Amino acid sequence: MTAPFKRILLKLSGEVLMGEGGLAIDPLVTARVAEEIAGVRAQGYELCVVVGGGNIFRGLSAAAKGIERATADYMGMLATVMNALAVQNALEQIGVDTRVQSAIPMASVCEPFIRRRAERHLEKGRVVIFAAGVGSPFFTTDSGAALRAAEMKCDALFKGTSVDGVYDADPKKVPGAKRYQTVSFNRVLSDDLKVMDASAVALCRDNDIPIVVFNIREHGNFAAVLAGEGVSTIVQ
Ligand code: UDP
């Protein structure tokens, strides 16, 4: 899988920054994720990162408890900015040059999203972390990841989660559930397989961007999957 990929986008769910003790952003866990990113960056890949916010705030759950949906979603987007800063901090502590760009401008916190500027950062070897999803309510950071992957002409979207791929049924509930090695975009959509939300999957399909689902919590797995050795599911 190595050869054709030069520029990749890593989507991190907010939950991968959580620790055992229920800390929304666990510094040790975040440092481990940063090491995985640094290892891949050191191999010469150009790296974009999109972070979620579900470890802190999810619009849909808050809306169910009475907060207006659009307001709740803006709160969720702000949560992704906190996660982006945490990932940036962890990367810079180990010497990786980064920039955070937010879809919601926040001048004293980070850069606004400017595609050409992000392009320049990548050329200079910086890891660009995109925050605040697409910048609009009623979307998710999965859609933000697919959109940025298309805009930045990424060769693949890597979805780093705490499971090792896509299964034909929930492996926690169905004994003998089978992990796909590869699966088509259309199968993911027709069978409603839990990969990313449907609009994100469709955007990747329409722009020929494969999605690689893998466990980022397993040490060395990000680099291994890129080298064609680790455990993952490729949606293509
Ligand atoms: N969100 C949004 N628009 C976006 C991206 C995110 O409204 O473009 C909000 C939404 O409320 C979502 C929350 O931000 O629940 C956190 O993002 P997400 O649930 O995608 O995070 P993840 O599940 O990846 O941790």
TrEMBL record:
Residues 6-215 form the Aspartate/glutamate/uridylate kinase domain. It is found in: Cytoplasm. GO terms for cellular component: cytoplasm. It is an enzyme of class 2 (transferase). GO terms for molecular function: ATP binding; UMP kinase activity. UMP binds at residues 53, 73, 134-141. Keywords: ATP-binding, Cytoplasm, Kinase, Nucleotide-binding, Pyrimidine biosynthesis, Transferase. Pathway: Pyrimidine metabolism; CTP biosynthesis via de novo pathway; UDP from UMP (UMPK route): step 1/1. It catalyses: UMP + ATP = UDP + ADP. InterPro entries: AceGlu_kinase-like_sf (IPR036393), Asp/Glu/Uridylate_kinase (IPR001048), Uridylate_kinase (IPR011817), Uridylate_kinase_bac (IPR015963). The keyword Ribonucleoprotein does not apply. The keyword Membrane does not apply. One of its GO terms (biological process) is UDP biosynthetic process. ATP binds at residues 11-14, 54, 58, 161, 167, 170. Inhibited by UTP. It comes from the Bacteria. Pfam families: AA_kinase. Homohexamer. Catalyzes the reversible phosphorylation of UMP to UDP. Belongs to the UMP kinase family. This is Uridylate kinase. The gene is pyrH.
